[in-house]
Amino acid sequence: MRKIVFIIAATLTQYSAFSQVTKNVIVEHFTNTYCSICASRNPGFYTNRVQFPQVIHIAYHPSAPYAACPLNQHNKQENDDRTNYYSIYGATPRLVIQGKVVASSTNYNNASIFQSELGQNSAFEIEAKLTPSGSSSITVSVKLKKVSSSSLSSLQLYAALTEDTLFFNAANGETKHYDVFRKSVWGAPMNITAPSNIGDSIVYTQTIALNSAWIANRMNVVAMLQDANKEIVQVTKSANLKGMTGIGKTNQPTDGIIYPNPTNSVITVEVKEPSVISVYNAIGKLMKTIKQHSLSATYNIDFLPAGVYSIRIADRAGVYYKTIVKE
Q1: Is position 224 within any domain?
Q2: 146 in the same domain as 89
Q3: Quick one: 141 exposed, middle or buried, by C-beta within 10 A (0-12, 13-18, 19+)?
Q4: Co-location of 216 and 286 in the same domain
Q5: Cβ atoms 241, 303 nearer than 8 A
Q6: Are 153 and 257 within one domain?
């Protein structure tokens, strides 16, 4: 059973040493791999955002208006839950910056959507860490600390596991998918009581099974503290997960080739040496395992339903993952 652990630090007596800290900025991006409008607007959005590397980004894939989106199907309920949290379910693309919904007519290429949120301060700081827990689980740790005077007491804490990059040819033509939401750490945002005294801190932890469809060293956690109006009080992003072995090293094309992708019925797998090929569906269920003795082999995958699949390639050098789409 997953647990939440609370640790209260001793109150510091020298309050004068504390002052507000910079409030980090997050853009929550609601998109869909079947959405042609997303394919036309996302490139300009990403070009704009790259000018603001300090802005944290997370991409959700709601089921409306395109329920076939494979990144939605990986975790339909929680992708849709976050969309409904902001009451914007039903259309993509949409942006929420600092917990405030951006009008759909806004030019996502305009630098002002980020600039207007920079340079603000917060009375709270957050630290987030993602660490291995055994061979197939990860532990999320989120530390909330009050660093200056604030009247805020009742807050919400939301944390999400994200994968920094997925590579596959989506139905709308997009081939790279950034900061993809995979799972909420505690489900819905937790209602919490902020530390009452300056210098006090609270630590929340949660252990979660690592889904076989995720690439371990691409995983991180984003933690958001929000007020009663859903506006961001503070936000942070952890470093990528390190120290996991046997879960997957990379899904870059240099570690093997699988084609065509997307595919209708067959795939060809080219590897560097004899390998064991395992196929997992979007929720991590093992669908097929094959011992491939040749450097190139073609397989019929008519038995697989349409969707996104993670292909695990294990050889003497290590374990690698690819992502394919079955149409």
Answers
A1: yes
A2: yes
A3: buried
A4: no
A5: no
A6: no
* DSSP assignment string, 225-260: EE-TT--EEEEEEPPPP----SS-----GGG-EEES
pTM here is 0.75
- Tell whether 275 and 146 lie within a shared domain: no
What values do phi and psi take at 280, rounded to 5? Answer: -120, 145
Residue 232: name the closest of 123, 99, 79, 134 by CA.
99
Which residue is listed with tokens 């690439």? 215
Give the integer Cα–Cα distance in Å for 186 and 255. 34
CATH number of the domain bearing residue 185: 2.60.40.10
pLDDT tens figures, 60-117: 999 999 998 989 989 999 999 999 999 999 999 999 999 999 999 999 999 999 999 9
Distance between CA 81 and CA 188 in Å, rounded? 8
Element spanning 71, H or E: helix 70-73
Q: Determine the structural domain holding residue 309 and report its residue range.
A: 253-326
